[in-house]
Amino acid sequence: MKRYLFLMLVLMMINNLFSYSILERVTGNYIGNVDPRSAAMGSAAASGGNTLFDVVINPANLGFLPDGFGFQFSYDLMSDSDNRSLPMYNSFDAYVDDATYASNMNTFGKFTPGAFYKRNFDKFTIAASVLYRPFISFDSFYSEEVRNNKNSDFNGYPPIIAKNYIDSQGSINAISFLTAFTYEDIASLGIELSILSGDSDLERKIIWSDQALEMLNTLTDTTNTLNREFEALQVKVGTNININQRFSVGLSFSPKIEFDVKGDKDGVDVEDAVYVYTKFDSLNNPLDSLTYADFSSPMKLRAGFCYKPRNVMRTFLNLDIEFVKWSDVNSLYENELNFYVGVEHRLKNMIPIRLGFNYQTCYSLHEHEGRTFADKVTMPAFTAGTGFTFLENFNFDISFEFSNRQYEALDLFPDSYYDHEELWEYYQHLNLEDRGWENPDTVKETFINIQSSISFKW
Amino acid sequence: MIDAIKDVMKKLILLLLILISNTAFTKENVYLKKDGIFVNYDSLKINLVKNKKYTFEGFGSIGIERTHLSIIGENIRDEGDKPKIVFKPKFIKTYELNIKGFFKEKCIASQKFYLFVKPEPGLEEPGKELIEEEITIIDTVKAVKEEPVVEEEIPIEPIFEEEVITLIDLNTASLEKLKSLPVSEKQAEDIFNYRFYIQFFKSIYDLREIESIDQKTMNRLKPLLIVSHYDDKDEASQRRDEIAYLIERLGSNEGLQEGMSDVWEDYLMTPRNINKLPFSDILNLPNTSPIDAAAIINRRAVGDSISSYRDLRQSPGISYYGAKNIRYYVYYSEQILAKKIFIDYQMKYNDSPYQDDALEMFKESMIRYEDDPGTPGIKRQSYWGFFNMESDRTSIQNKLRIRYLNEWKAGCISYSSKGEENLLRGDNQDILKDSKYYIGYEKELDFLGRNYLKIYAGNYRATFGEGLVMENTDFYSPRKTGYGFNKRITGITPDISRTQEYALRGLALDWKRDNLNAVFFFSKDNKDAVVYDSNDNGKLDKDDDILSYITMTRRFTDDELESAEEYFNSFSDNYNQVSIAPRKDALEEQIIGGHFEYSPFIGTHIGITGYEAVYNRDFVVPETSELKYLLISVPLTDSIYAEKKWKITDNEISSLYSTRSDEVGDRDYRRVFGFDWRTVLNNTSIQGEYAELEVDGNFGKLGDDPKAIIISAYTQFDNLYLLSMYRNYDLEFDNPYHRSFSESERFDDTVFEKLTYALNNTLLNDMYLNSAQPSAEEGIYFETRYQFHQKLTLTKAYLDIWERKSDARRGIRCEAKLEFKPIHQLRIRLRHKHQVKRYDDDQDRNKSRADETELKLICYLSNFDRLQLGYVYATVLQPPYLSILSDPAQASGPDMAQASTLTNGDMIYVDYTHNFNENLKVIGAFSFWQGHGVSFWDFEDIELDFDQKDRGFKYWFNIHSRISSNLFLSLKYKYKQFLTRELEFRKFNVLPDPDEGEYYFQRVERKENILRLQLDWKF
Q1: Min CA distance, A10 vs chain B (Å)?
Q2: What angle do CA A383, A385, A387 make, to 5 degrees?
Q3: What is the ipTM of this complex?
């Protein structure tokens, strides 16, 4: 046991070193599910959730937990491998393929504790719960090397000119208070009130190497910072109805959340620091802008069902459809539907096998020729998991989620910054111009998410 | 009084018999009842003969007050002093007899039950006396009165009232009833949940499957329960269970038999009467030969009928495999699932990447020979970059089919291939337009004999003869013989396959009777086409002519293409503007066609097929001298570049059909007609088809137009078949609906395949990539299967010798598969393939030779688990290709061979199928290959995968879960990693400097993650 506690402690301590996707370093990564059972089932748990942390998806799930006291602790480990490549051309200047120039693989960890109590009053039951959970994560890390073209033939290693970093840390966490009312195991109504607070520190650095400084001593390192603090309240409501013993439906709704943001970007107040422009007049002059202080979470409406058929293995099929009103966040975004489907089979020895699939969409903003565009990025995920019971009342669950996505992005550190003749061997052959959207980076990201939890029911 | 004495005497005699037979045994399970009454019981297992009447009689000894006798699971019981039941078993199985009774309050400690069985008929007749000699004692049970035993923790509640004995049926009792059993509330709920969520009880011993029920509890419950036969599966589910593996096999062939598996699945679910099926419908069943079909019709012709599968097997001339394959598609006397509406919904999600050839097409630059060759490349100058195809959406298919028996049918499909708009996104009107749907009616009518009628409105599939005139599918299948697994369903069938370009939409009528078959079809649909700037106005518009049909890998909309072309044109000089491009739905095609068939005697027919397609725009193929400059972009510095690149094989392009030319004048149609025939002589079937494409305008005259002919003979023995086939297709026979046997697809080796980088528009590559038409060739093909011995079979061997018409290149391809089965659980398969192209001229620079040998070991394990191990070794003598690099001596050199090279590669693979139970199956596979330029085809669970050149590995697993009796889920994940040639280093936009040798072609790895999800809902 000591060993496990130590391991847990170490994981929590190095939490700050972990990171997630660089794409969402400003907008943050939403953490929609912290329960490994439903995570293994594609995160489909608007109905049929039977562990405490399924209340994150639908607060009404609290109403169908067993009577008495229980708690759950989960740990989420996310690994992101980010491969950034640029287009390459053959001797006819024809595009051949993309070649990877920077690979980053980072791991990110978050934990969630929670407890509940449920009491029966004749036909009614009342349940209450409190959770502390990550809501949005800003953790991400990126590094790349800029190398000279000297000695790059015949397998020689070209010297480093500069090292570039993007380091983002912080998260918005939620302290959630939930209550649910259930009538005769037929219907439940759940309400969640969360206090959201957190911060984010983003740093972008270009550090020249000693060798570069020797070649050109006027070079100075560059550091850009963005520091923000967030605060908001979230209200979420949900309901769960058992139509019959085989079929139940669930619905949850969370309205748009507007965050109060304080902080600065390179010393300028975030209220005054423009992030992107979203509207232009007929002459292409920018009109309306988003600043770094504009931070909101879209309205989400999620509906799902749980089907419990007769099967030689005890089986649960969950399917959710979620409507995300992305236009709440930005007028350039389109509203989207996300899909979640999962199945749980309990084998003869009651060991569950869980499988799932989900398909989610998110957005990123970019600028092209002075205008702002929104790029839709879709991400399918395949999930699997299992669990077991020990010491009668304890459950251990584990899930594995694999997902990947591809998108185009602008060079994070444009080339013209390194346009100093002294630094390069064959300067006459170089064309150190910034690559625009005619030659963007192709980014391929692979996520592996492992969640585990221990839950206890009295 | 006398009766009582007789009774006592009988019992004494029986007691004596018991003592002699020494079969009495004691049971110690005593249960406390209220008011001091005890009950004892036992159950005995007995094997009974089917359909024979048995009489059971039981009674207790003097201390037993009343006896209860029942047969578990049969809902038969009797109670009293001497209960008696008569039972006629329907099945051969072990039945369980249950006997129990109540103790009298003051009785002796040891009591017994007696149970007798009388199998002879007569005893069941009322009023007949029991004759001792006829009575067989099968067992006795000794009842023991003990002190009351109180079980720990479990409160024991009275179950039986003294007056009434009620047994609880585990399969029908409510939860409240189960709670009245002497079990805890949780145990009762567990029993209920087991029945409700897992399965109905087959026997009382299933209780032990429940975690909370131990042996003691079960023993206690046994006398209180009965188990009736109960199942919630309807007939359709049961039928689906029976044919599950056949449906799975049909699904596996989906790629090759696009759309046909639905038709076969329907007939599997609702078989048709073998005694009424016409010849062509029998022949349309999978793996059925004309000889098999004739064998069945011949039997019926003499007034005989087929009453069972065994009877079918006795039909003279029918093959073992023919009968075996037919058996599940037909019924003999009683229709299965007589009245039912079937609904099938299917959703498929697949995020497989584009095939390599398509990737190359999209990634190729669209900018040709700029004035300043030093301009850095721009990714947006390719379709890949312009449309950001890196993040192309996945392909999604939604398919719904509804039918009432085989009579009323309707269905629709919405299929969006990778990158296209799907149901949830995009213009709904466009999506509806691209969706396919049908409604149809099929009926056997008694009107002046037996008639078969089919009417389809919407999308339908029409196939006749050998596919020379009409077979409308987008998918090319090499060596499609029409036999075995390469079957074609002739006639009219509904079509909600992925076929888009060659889909027919309209009305089709198919009428058959004993010796006649008439089909009429009409279609009006818009087709994608290659449009070129024929009027030289610098635009691709509706006034321009059409070069050909085209099946696009991704169906870009016209707006998308126009914006891309505008962007590309902004970089190119005036000579190399985009002047030819595909356009979606550019051509309106209206088809009227028909087929008439007369069968003078069984197995013989002669048929005529023809269609006329009328177009709203002209197909005009420019003269070759212009065509080459239209298709190939030319640099300013080399005005005869197109001449150099144009090869003799490109005749296949210049021989495309024109509706307007100097020879034929101006018209707006294409007419194809032909005739087909078949005759079955003993165990040989000879068939063929001849077709002409009308070019000279003389419709009635044979032999004056481009033509195509195919003739085949098929001979069948019990352990052998032999197929011989001759085909000869003219180069000018450009029938877009031609899908007959061939070795390669049209435009193989033309500029459409080999010259992507120089084509005016790289998308023309699709002309070859998705070509469904056979190439013009003449050849002879032999195929056989021979079972030497029960343990040794030549499963398939073929030899094809052919000549390509466009350049007279001759080729040979042969393949043989041998299977050795030392024991049933083990199969060893050896396969060898040999192919030579241009075998007739050793000096030809285009000569190539490939050999491939595969050894596979298949182990069938218990519970239908399976393990496969395989090894493939291949060699390829490659013809020389031009290098895209100028200096082969440069570091890491060119990536293409400069001279003929013999390369070799091998692959090893393993796959394992594990069945957790009948509802959960996992298939996993791993393969590793060292290609060195050789490629491998790998047949995964239900799809073919083309493994890349060079070194790589992949693994995949597929989970099949049957969630309920009508809901199926399949989830596949594949990871593939292989070496490829790709520029690896960041170039920092360094311009090419040959002296410095900046170009680094480094072997790097490519990784692919693929997810596929399929959901089937059938009810």
Answers
A1: 32
A2: 160
A3: 0.81
